[in-house]
Amino acid sequence: xxxxxxxxxxxxxxxxxxxxxxxxxxxxxxxxxxxxxxxxxxxxxxxxxxxxxxxxxxxxxxxxxxxxxxxxxxxxxxxxxxxxxxxxxxxxxxxxxxxxxxxxxxxxxxxxxxxxxxxxxxxxxxxxxxxxxxxxxxxxxxxx
Length: 144
Known about the structure:
With about 140 residues, the protein is mainly β. It has one helix at about 110-120; strands spanning about 10-15, 20-25, 30-35, 50, 55, 65, 70, 90-95, 100.
């Protein structure tokens, strides 16, 4: 979670068929959502990472709070209930600065896993880590 240093910081990820966005909210909590607008299904965050005060769909500008709540949806019919159209959440836990995601409809209790791995991760103080350099390398080679 050192890649999400402040509120509004986000990263996107693809897990199988599911595009996700992980974002730090105003209270410092890391949230994970399906990266799909509830209006027309467009990706809300197209960049791999960035910072945004609100998550805004580029298609019709549906605007979501960093906790996934729908804040603004223009030209919707009277009686439209914004509270029913927030971003779809994904189970997300942060332990020792590692972020764990579960796509199951009903994720298992994470507490036993947390209790087991936390003593091994916390001494490394990864919350204080910073990415010093990042690159992508494409090598020409064969599979042998």
